[in-house]
Design goal:
4 copies of one chain form a homotetramer. The first copy, chain A, is mostly helical and 128 residues long. Helices cover 62% and strands 0% of the residues of chain A. Chain A contains 6 helices and no strands. In chain A, helix 1 packs across helix 4 (70-94) and helix 2 (37-53) runs antiparallel to helix 4 (70-94). The first copy, chain A, starts with 15 loop residues before the first helix and ends in a 10-residue tail after the last helix.
């Protein structure tokens, strides 16, 4: 492929494959009626809750080493997958383009947290 | 397409562009020390909470129509972007390959929810 | 008891018994070092996530009938207890008086949502 | 105090006052139809998310000192009040007795985490 073929910048996010895989999975099981945005937002919450539980009693340093234990590493990976699956499903149902959404949000963040002002500063006023 | 053209299966998820954009954003602001997995899991929670708030008083049907109001549509899109940004950042910090993670989880879900058994059934025992 | 003995209005919230029970439970197990506000806020998240999962695929009407199934009723009750336990523990660690806190918040809500304006209205602008 | 004075054990949790205050608040605004368990569980999520955001970039030690800043202390207190308000409302709607619920859960926790085994141990297998 050449620049002439594709002048568009590379996507920051491409989840088309996952979106299709989930859509097929839900269709085959007649789960589409359950996948209202309201329900999917709740499901997302539940999965994030399970992810957070893996870190809740760890120090920050220990949380950085969480992958050293194979069982925990697997659980973290699985919960992150669940979060992404429900997020991509929610985006599909709402027809949200996640690549557009993150581009727009990163641009807004760049305006909101100028480098000089935000450097090394985790105050709520200066960090998302 | 033939195997000769593309021996590798297409990725379900490609967030390399976003991962790099966030890494640069954090590096420029010296935010890396704040981005422990523990903290990022908390940040993910906060963003999901903001997303859920947009749906909490809506009926399921109204949640399907949420994009009709431009202001709400924009808020939903922004919150979904925030969730994805923190999830991708967490994956980067933990060196989790999200494409691998969702492939593995989708395969596990297919085993856990066989089509015939799961069809149209939202019982906890038969749906994630 | 007479007004002269106790001019103070009855508490809206009295969780002193639970607060003591949890403190003893944590002390006996040397868990106090784990109970930083940061960790407890995460634990609270995890428990709320488990509670939400019980409702995520239910219609609103079905969620009202959730207690009809004894197993689900028990799970709901247990998750609500976990949420309350971590909330009360967090309040204890931070020395927050929950009775004061809810009085102050209810008063603020009454100012924010005047009856005539808020009646039957679940718009974000008019409902917490 | 003797059995004759008080044959009933003191409640661990008494939120009857708050329950009545919220019921009146909702009734006056015709908000009862919005207060399905499903919606209230979502609202609880949103409030916990706001609480977590106050701690997400803090170290554990800094989270212990969060009350030193008056503005943050107030926000923490308000978010904790919101969590308790929605939890008590959910319990009322579902007719869950929170005092019973925490007694039962504390007893289960005591069996699950025997003192000798759990002491100083925050492994997931030995701590809630």
């Amino acid at each position: 492929m050449t620049v002439a073929d594709d002048p568009k910048p590379r996507a920051l996010v491409d989840v088309a494959g996952l979106r299709e895989a989930i859509a097929q999975f839900a269709r085959e099981r007649d789960w589409e009626p359950f996948h209202s945005p309201k329900n999917l937002a709740m499901a997302l919450t539940g999965e994030v809750g399970e992810l957070v539980e893996l870190f809740q009693w760890l120090t920050e340093d220990a949380s950085r080493e969480v992958a050293r234990d194979a069982v925990t590493a697997r659980r973290v990976r699985d919960e992150m997958a669940d979060v992404l699956i429900y997020l991509v499903r929610l985006a599909a149902v709402l027809e949200v383009d996640l690549d557009d959404a993150v581009r727009s949000k990163l641009a807004a963040n760049a305006r909101r947290y100028p480098i000089e002002k935000a450097r090394g500063n985790a105050n709520k006023a200066t960090q998302p």
